[in-house]
Amino acid sequence: MRTLSPVPARWGILALLSLAAGDGIAQEADAMAEIFVTATARPEARSRIAATTQVIDRAAIERSTAKSVTDLLAENAVGFFSEWTAAQTSINIRGATSDGQGRDYKGQVLVLVNGRRAGTANLSKLSANEVERIEIVRGPASVIYGSQNMGGVINIIMKSGANPPPSQAGVGVGSWGGVQANAQTSGGDERFDWYFGVSGGQRDDYESGKGGGKLANTGWERRGFAGSLGFQFDDLNRVELKLRTDGIYNAGFRGSGANTVSRDDRSNASVDLSYEGRTRDERIGWMAQLYSVRDEDEFKWASPVVRSGTAAVPGTSRDYNDRKLDIVGSRLQPRFKLGEGSDLLLGYDWERSRLRSDRFRVALPGGPTGQVAPYDNNQTEQVNALYVEDSQSFIDDRLTVRGGARRTWGTTRFDPTPNLALQRSGSQDYSETTGSIGATWRALDVLNLRTGISTGFRAPTSTELGADFTAVGGGRTFGNPNLKPESNRQIEFGGTLQLPAWSLDMALFRNTIADRIVTVSRGATTNTSDYANNAADVVVRGLEASVNVDLAKALNFPTGAYNLRAYANGYYNFTMRDKGATTLDTDRVQRMYKYEASLGLRYGRGAGALTGDWTLQLGALLRGPMWYDTEEALLIPQGEPRSTYIHRKGAFTTWNLRGDYRIASNVKVFAGINNLFNLNRSPIFIALDQKPCIADARFQNGGCGTSMPGRELQVGMQVTF
Asked: Stretch 74-101: mean pLDDT, rounded?
């Protein structure tokens, strides 16, 4: 492995990658010393960050059987993932949500790739193969991020030649015609380095669990590549170019109607150019980044039947929609050491995004002439932001206090949109100030405490500001140019306890979401509504915890012989209250788990690098009860007592098993079983693939209920060169 010069390795992503390339077990054992980038835009020990953070490193990714980043995050209990299909996910973290069906670019959870906006929160588009590490920050936490960070920040950090991974290739096969393959290579010298990786896969329609059968229109194909070129000018300056594309194609989209016709192509591609440097005395440093993103959703849909009130009416024989979001942006972050223990970060962000939909629809006789979901509205947005964040250490670096503020200015323009005859084009300005303040205190050498208060926001879209469209069934919705951005305020207190054989991290939090943008009816007899800010808040209070235990050390196993480790990560929400809920059934926040936990036990021999080394891992994912006013058309009374009924989906647990064995120093074989006990459940759908069907067949377009995949077997091999 090429050795980096020591000084640049302390800056930016280089320091992070140098740790991420190491042994994952070592990282788990010393969470307080681990370097983290996302929360403060510069590498810092997690113990100095006044926010709850979570890391999924490369070792954990390689031990996973995940097909996408969604699967990977779900395995680690990061939050609620709706998992509509293999190609579509929405997220809920601490009560803040992302949207779906082409609207995920504007949600309340911010997804980053290499530290800048990904252009999507639909993580099902993204494969885990080229990912080096994922960092999660819960809540707004820092002022370095603007719109959408109300629930948290998910930063997907890609592999690069900065600390080159080994050249290797892998292939795996599995149930239902599943095939996955990947290859990567890297190299370089003291000045120049490079990385290239490629991956792909497919799976046919899957079978659900006990009591179900094969679910039509659930297959998919996946492909992508990533590459980087880096140049080290000297010990002080480095420039790096990263290119990538990732996507899922020909993916069946059953949706809430169990549709057996519609299919999707969804992809995300980007180019990043970054420059990091510093002065020789380390008093001044800087990071500059230019980026371009293309996020594309190609809906190849059809809905022969659509629902209008309680009636089934003719729909579309074809509904093709190619939705493209193009983003260009830049970030500049100078950093100054003002004195002993003082670290000042300044920042300027600029970004321009352009959303366009090319839609062609063929309605059946008597079918809709206006827009049908997802409602397409072309828009152009430009955003500028200035921010400052300062940290100061006291008492021999045992106490760190940090705080900052950010001012964001934006202009959203509602551009001409097809199939929107009553559109009111125009532009609208918005602005928002957010802030954060927090502190960490190393109370003991093994105990670190933290507390923080932070605010975030989500800017309104052009649709919400200026829409005027007639939906299926004749309902008309008007935009509101006086909308305020959605906002939130979060308070948290937590701590990390690090002992020789185990570590524990816990946090108590309260997240209050205000000014939510909703539609408000003009009256029961008007069939007309307006976008408006909801005066009632969403309030979520909860406890989050993670624990890692080195059982081999605790049980005094011989050093280097066997590894035995237990781990857990999860949360419990004491309060999930939507004060604006209008139903009499519940005021709980919908599409959000009350509790969730990822639990596992990993047993192995050796360090994984010698012939004969092996590991066996048993993992469980507990998904707690969830409340949901489903969009499914259920039978009354068999499926629900009335159409406005709020369903409570009970908790369930799925088990996964994975093992690997090194048959030669450079060859490893592996096998895994997902959903070990063949459970027939779904994270979101009420009507499952079971008999009798509780969905109304009049609205289903060929399907009935939708369950998650049943028991799935995977086997494969990885060769290192």
From this structure: 85
- 13 three-class SS: helix
- For residues 440 and 48, is the Cβ–Cβ distance under 8 A? yes
Name the strand (E) or helix (H) holding 318. strand 311-339
Mean pLDDT of the chain: 87
Helix (H) or strand (E) holding 463: helix 462-466
The two structure tokens encoding residue 229: 């070129």
Structure tokens at 210: 């006990």
Sort 525 into a burial class: Cβ within 10 Å, 0-12 / 13-18 / 19+.
exposed
Query: Side chain identity at 658, as an amino acid letter?
Result: R
pTM comes to: 0.91
- Per-residue 3-state assignment (H helix, E strand, C coil) for 282-314: CCEEEEEEEEEEEEEEEEEEEEEEEEECCEEEE
Q: Judge whether 597 and 651 are in contact, CB under 8 Å.
A: no
Cα distances (Å, whole numbers) of residue 634 to 310, 312, 608, 644: 11, 13, 51, 11
SS3 state at 373: coil
pLDDT of 148 strictly over 60: yes
Q: Are the beta carbons of 215 and 101 closer than 8 angstroms?
A: no
Please list the residues that pair with 81 across neighbouring strands.
Answer: 91
What radius of gyration do the chain's Cα atoms show? 25
Q: How far apart are the first and last CA of the chain?
A: 13
Number of CB atoms found within 10 A of residue 548's CB = 22
Looking at residue 2, its pLDDT comes to 38
DSSP helix/strand/coil, 70: helix
